[in-house]
Design brief:
This protein is an alpha/beta fold and 467 residues long. Helix content is 31%, strand content 22%. The radius of gyration is 27 Å and the shape is globular.
């Protein structure tokens, strides 16, 4: 049996910041009491508990999370605990039910909650409001959120600074090592390194039953001892799937495959809203967005639905960043099938290295579509050329296709298309779309020129002459 108190300290790969040496205590019960307090504590309130599990691959992070769920089953009874796991926090909150104990496990959390990712900002407001979201189901209970990550510093600080930190191992990156050391101190870090030697150096799987835990309000880190449990958790496939696009930024995007919208007898706004709902947007957010599309202000929506204007604005921003463009892509697919009933339509989308759509009419040159969706009430839209995937230009150049940029603004409920001569562009140039002030349904296309005060015609559409 592995006994931590018999292990010799090893040399740290980082400088010591403190000479404080303490005996490590077993704080397993303290961790469990923190995450799963006596049910009398939440008879009249909703508690929130936050835990982050850090470790290298194969260090036992997922097994530890299952053991924590098992201990919750023991304390409260399995029928009173709702445990779900997945890769994106924003997807999992939709599976909160009316049971008194909710456990949300975000596995491989840095995939979507990365500190430099655009998508993690979408989840932060819901993370801060998780207690209030649960209160819509019931007035009392305990909500436990567990993040599992292989990279500590890269995890957004909002999700990293937990009430309970559990380290299964240290990490390879020196900045991660220093951060972990600062959290747990020299003695605990030495034991953590010794555990890694047992696990990875000697293949001793018994070492996976030990972890270093740090509870926010306790001075010193301690030992957490767990066991292997054979437990199946409900895993929620992410609505948002990560992808990298040549010329893009690799941000997380939702899949539009399989979303079928009937646009025969429905206006495009309603089709767009229905597509977003099918992709996972909450119905109340769809209702708010519908009001906004039809001209209501934030204050109008607030008065009608009883939510703060800031909450409504944040929700609309969330939908815009995560679903808007891709829901329009699904709707546009149905439009193309009706517009070109006999043509072959190849649907790539931003989750692949292909253009959004390639339409191949019989005996005609193919048409490459770049699909964009905006819902701002502004009449000026600037679209950098870099926003259009590089593959679209390469495909158009190599296959003699024509490129059409399709814009849709649901506030005006109009589709505007501009054919672009891709052969005259390079990747460093930009295109600017401007809604004319007197007629928001028409479009002028401009491109910058090397000479000030001059403009060139693009694809037969109106051009800027230095105005």
């Amino acid at each position: 049996m592995l006994r931590l108190n018999q292990l010799d300290p090893i040399k740290l790969p980082i400088p010591l910041y403190s000479k404080r040496v303490t005996k490590l205590e077993n704080i397993t019960e303290d961790v469990l009491d923190t995450l799963f307090p006596d049910e009398n504590r939440f008879k009249r309130a909703v508690l929130f508990r936050h835990c982050t599990i850090v470790g290298m691959p194969e260090s036992g992070k997922t097994v530890l999370s299952k053991w924590l769920v098992f201990k919750a089953y023991e304390r409260y009874g399995q029928k009173h605990v709702n445990a779900v796991s997945g890769m994106r926090f924003g997807d999992l909150i939709g599976f909160i039910d009316e049971r008194p104990v909710q456990i949300i496990i975000v596995d491989d959390a840095v995939t979507y909650q990365h500190s430099r990712s655009r998508s993690h900002n979408i989840d932060i407001p819901d993370f801060f409001r998780i207690r209030h979201i649960f209160k819509e189901k019931r007035k009392n209970g305990n909500v436990v959120v567990i993040f599992i990550t292989q990279r500590f510093r890269s995890l957004d600080i909002v999700f990293r600074n937990a009430q309970v930190l559990i380290f299964k191992s240290t990490l390879i990156d020196p900045s991660d090592q220093k951060l972990i050391y600062d959290y747990i101190g020299d003695t605990a870090y030495n034991y953590l390194m010794r555990l890694m030697e047992k696990m990875y150096g000697y293949g001793d799987h018994r070492a996976k039953s030990y972890s270093i835990a740090k509870i926010l309000w306790l001075d010193d880190a301690g030992i957490l001892k767990s066991k292997y449990v054979d437990l199946d958790l409900r895993f929620i496939e992410p609505i948002i799937a990560a992808a990298s696009i040549p010329g893009g930024d690799g941000r997380a995007i939702p899949s539009t495959q399989g979303i079928v919208i009937d646009i025969e007898d429905i206006d495009l706004r309603e089709a767009l809203l229905e597509a977003m709902h099918k992709m996972g947007a909450e119905r109340r957010h769809i209702d708010w967005l519908r009001e906004y599309f039809y001209g209501s202000t934030m204050r109008d929506i607030s008065s009608k639905f009883g939510y703060a204007p800031s909450t409504i604005a944040e929700s609309l921003k969330k939908i815009r960043e995560s679903l808007m463009g891709y829901a329009w892509e699904a709707v546009f697919h149905e439009i193309l099938k009706k517009r070109y009933p006999k043509a072959e339509i190849i649907r790539g989308g931003r989750n692949t290295a292909e253009p959004d759509f390639i339409v191949k009419p019989k005996n005609q040159q193919p048409i490459v579509f770049s699909v964009k969706c905006y819902y701002d009430r502004k009449k000026v839209i600037t679209l950098p050329l870099e926003e259009i995937a590089q593959s679209e230009y390469q495909y158009a150049k190599n296959h003699n296709a024509k490129l059409i940029i399709s814009l849709y603004n649901p506030y005006y409920n109009k589709i505007i298309e501009a054919p672009i001569d891709v052969h005259s562009f390079n990747q460093s140039q930009h295109i600017t779309f401007r809604y004319q002030t007197d007629n928001p349904t028409s479009l002028n296309v401009y491109r910058p020129c090397s000479r000030a005060g001059a403009g060139e015609e693009v694809g037969g559409v109106g051009v800027d002459r230095g105005r």
